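## retry 2 of 3
previous attempt timed out at serialization; input unchanged, resubmitting
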Amino acid sequence: MKALIYQNNSIKFREKENPKIQSSRDAIVKVKLSSICTSDLHIIRGAVPQAKEGIVLGHEFVGEIVELGDGIKNLKIGDRVSSNCETFCGECYFCKRGFINNCEHGGWMLGCKIDGCQAEYIRVPFADTGLTKLPENVTYEKALFVGDILSSGYFGAELCEIKENDTIAVIGAGPVGLCAMASAKTFLAGKIIAIDIDSYRLETAKKLNLADYIFNPTECNIETEIKKLTSNRGADGVIECAGSNSSFEMSWKIARPNSIVAVVAMYEENQILPLPQMYGKNLIFKTGGVDAVHCKTLLDMISKGILNTDFLISKTFKLDEIEQAYKYFENKTDNCLKVAIEY
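## retry succeeded, writing output
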């Protein structure tokens, strides 16, 4: 099969042997549509030490089951499925508590520690937990982002413990940030504030009715603007999706006292908590990789028209064009949000 291989901080598209069933809970999936994530770029830049040389990249995909281990009872060959970005057993201490990112037998495996989805076929361990069957009216395009960036955005909104009519600030209007805004609406947030230095992404958030207010920190004082909207209190919850030094600092500065800052961004550098400055704000920080435990719920919401992520696909490439797609995505050509790789 054809596959995109990570080696020596670079990528190469070449032939690779097809995956085989290795365990009773494995599935082999024929990939129909995949995408490229910023975390794939982090791997190539050497910012993910656990990533193994020689693996197939990618963890965000949908496809059709073509082979199953004999321990899989909830899926069948021919099922159209969305894959979770996390591999999880469903049985360990962490899985039983919903913390699947910390599964004792899994975690971020696909496209990091084992072969991922940017190939014609992929082996999915613990397929009975990691694959979710698509509703009949949900296309591959509509389901593409369920297992990763939509789950990440939803995770951020969930971490904030949003109450009806809360004011939620989302730092970063990229794909995860836009998904966080859409998810915050499902939790009945009252006002959603989008913050980014990219005017196109801000306008997209406004045009799609994902944000009520948009602010560019290069054009205004964000703290001042948010205090104007919140009777001088600050945001009831902040979802940090940008992943820069300045966005991390902004996240705690714009939060009101006794609120939650949900950090779902992936950083390439250490961040500092200036505890003397924070003293008295009584903030709760919640951080980490997505616990994508709501894939079925998200697919149901897509099926019912409550959520939609179609707008994120800026351009579709063929698998043979995947190296070109990486350049397009990394350079944000044509204001790219996400790309789809068609098989």
